[in-house]
Design brief:
Low-confidence stretches: none
Largest sheet: 6 strands, antiparallel, barrel
CATH topology of the largest domain: Thrombin, subunit H
Radius of gyration: 19 Å
CATH superfamily of the largest domain: Trypsin-like serine proteases
Structural class: mainly beta
Number of strands: 15
Distance between the termini: 46 Å
CATH architecture of the largest domain: Beta Barrel
CATH class of the largest domain: Mainly Beta
Strand order of the largest sheet: 3-5-6-9-8-7
Strand content: 35-45%
Mean pLDDT: 91
Number of helices: 5
């Protein structure tokens, strides 16, 4: 990015550089300290609470900031994970990480339901681009069918993302997430379709959104953002299509990867119910 042109001198800004190993190490050390202080919720506590939380809740988004570029979006996207002790040493270890994003500056964040459904670990927390770590305190709402959950961390004055209207098929979108330990990776694509996900009994389920932007394990919970910097969906899962000999779909080379996302409508529903306020004790 060109910053200044003065006579014959050109000054360029350095791009933000991510130290994956250093960031994960910082997350581990700071979250481990919170675990020692019993300041963060355990995986058992979070997973146990999840079935009893409401499917939606009324929150006031308050001050939000559109994030149309990488640097702005990365400020509102967080590593989400836990630490545990292996029993063979005194050190804290990190489990696999997922992604979360801030929806309210007073510490309210959104991720996938499946991230917390089988949560383990002695302490859960989030970590930002600069290595600041905040403890997960509680889950406020969740919908398993929509694969979405709202939770609170112990932090204030966080940069929150505004939730926008549904994106049309073909609309440009971008994602910042943490695929397989590669932190704060930005990918680009379009909305490829909306579809109705079948429930386990094969009855019609919720409407999901599919996109063409790449993501992988560790990206669960990442916001899907439009060109204006508004959240229009959230990463959920992938389905790999293969095709082998004799038409066996579970064998042979990969033909295509379908990338399924929580819809913008589901996100709006999660945070717009008048039944209960997020500020209620």
């Amino acid at each position: 990015m060109l910053l200044m042109l003065c006579s014959s001198m050109v000054v360029w800004a350095e791009p933000p550089i991510v130290d994956d190993a250093g960031l994960v190490r910082t997350f581990q050390e700071k979250l481990g300290a919170l675990a020692d202080q019993k300041a963060a919720a355990s995986g058992e506590t979070l997973a146990g609470a999840l079935p009893g939380v409401p499917k939606s809740i009324l929150i006031n988004q308050g001050k939000t900031r559109p994030a149309a570029d990488y640097e702005a979006l990365s400020k509102s996207v967080f590593l989400l994970g836990s630490v545990y002790k292996c029993g063979k040493c005194e050190h804290w270890h990190t489990s696999g990480t997922a992604t979360a994003w801030c929806v309210n500056s007073d510490g309210l964040m959104v991720t996938n339901y499946h991230v917390f459904k089988a949560a383990k670990g002695e302490a859960w927390g989030v970590c930002d681009f600069n290595g600041q770590v905040h403890p997960v305190k509680e889950i406020l709402a969740g919908n398993e069918a929509e694969d979405i959950a709202l939770f609170r961390v112990g932090a204030k004055d966080l940069p929150a993302l505004p939730v926008g209207p549904d994106a049309q098929v073909g609309a440009d979108i971008h994602i910042v997430s943490h695929p397989a330990g590669h932190c704060f990776v930005e990918t680009f694509g379009q909305v490829s379709r909306y579809f109705r996900k079948p429930l386990p009994d094969m009855t019609p389920g919720p409407v999901m959104m599919a996109v063409t932007a790449d993501y992988a394990r560790g990206s669960s919970g990442a916001p899907v953002v439009n060109k204006a910097g508004l959240v229009v969906g959230m990463v959920s899962n992938t389905q790999t299509i293969t095709y082998g000999e004799k038409g066996k779909q579970d064998e042979g080379p990969v033909q295509m990867v379908i990338r399924n996302c929580v819809s913008g409508a589901a996100i709006r529903s999660l945070i717009s119910s008048p039944a209960k306020s997020a500020s209620t004790p």
